[in-house]
Design brief:
membrane, MetI-like fold, 2 domains, cell membrane, mainly alpha, transmembrane, transmembrane helix
């Protein structure tokens, strides 16, 4: 079993390592057979070109702002919506929740045009607001939190808080949210990583180089005629480093949150 897990781990890590190898050599390495496995000494030169060609640091900052806002927003707002669907009684609750679940069956690409028209009417085109606001909620996040809250929090606990005079907001914030914090943290991390890696929507709404996110900056490294794979891989590796650092610091908490809370039931 450990041998199988080791092979699977190597298979998962090798593409990242190979991306680093290409980013230290040149484009020819990407198509060489067998693949080169020894890094070269060209990484600093290519990384310097990345920062010279596009405003890469600004793009990383923009991605950090967008991803952090979306991650935090989904953790809180989806928890609120999940709490309402799981523990509050109101007319049409089940119907509304069914509609939320059904939206997950609609391909993301189908919502691009109406979403762009709304953003255009609001005057948010070519702004980070156009990336943040649509991502603050997700149907999957609402479903995730609703299922967790329904099984993790007893009705008797909430009724006791109500008897003590707590309002609905106080019940959520002081009683329910501390209990579901691990699941909300995992959802926020998923939202952060998804927003960091998103390409399609930022590519549509962003026009100015100083507002590029990290994925659009990598796209800007490519010329209209050919692709310098060494340069592109350098940018991709630099864009992946923050996620690797994040996983090093919160990986244990991510795994424990999934095991202890996210799939409880």
């Amino acid at each position: 079993m450990y041998g199988l897990l080791g092979v699977m781990t190597l298979g998962s890590v090798f593409p990242l390592y190979w991306m680093f190898v290409v980013s230290t050599t040149d484009s020819a390495t990407a198509t060489s057979l067998p693949p080169r496995v020894v890094p070269g000494g060209n990484f600093l030169h290519l990384a310097g070109l990345v920062f010279d060609i596009v405003p890469f640091l600004q793009a990383m900052l923009n991605s950090l702002i967008v991803a952090t806002a979306i991650g935090a927003g989904q953790a809180l707002l989806c928890a609120l919506a999940g709490f309402a669907f799981a523990k509050l009684s109101f007319r049409g609750r089940n119907t509304l929740f069914l509609i939320v679940v059904l939206t997950m069956t609609v391909p993301t690409q189908l919502s691009v045009i109406p979403q762009y028209l709304i953003i255009s009417e609001l005057g948010w085109v070519d702004s980070l607001t156009a990336l943040i606001v649509p991502g603050l909620m997700s149907a999957f996040g609402i479903f995730w939190m609703r299922q967790h809250i329904a099984h993790a929090i007893s009705d008797e606990l909430l009724q006791a808080a109500r008897v003590d005079g707590a309002t609905t907001w106080q019940i959520f914030w002081r009683v329910a949210f501390p209990l579901i914090r691990p699941a909300a943290f995992v959802l926020g991390l998923f939202g952060f990583v998804t927003a960091w890696n998103d390409f399609l929507w930022p590519f549509i709404v962003l026009k100015s180089p100083d507002r590029y996110t990290i994925q659009i900056a990598i796209k800007a490294l490519q010329s209209s005629r050919d692709i310098d794979l060494g340069l592109a891989m350098s940018g991709s590796f630099l864009a992946t480093l923050p996620l690797l650092v994040l996983f090093v610091f919160v990986g244990r908490r991510l795994v424990s949150g999934i095991m202890e809370g996210a799939f409880k039931g």
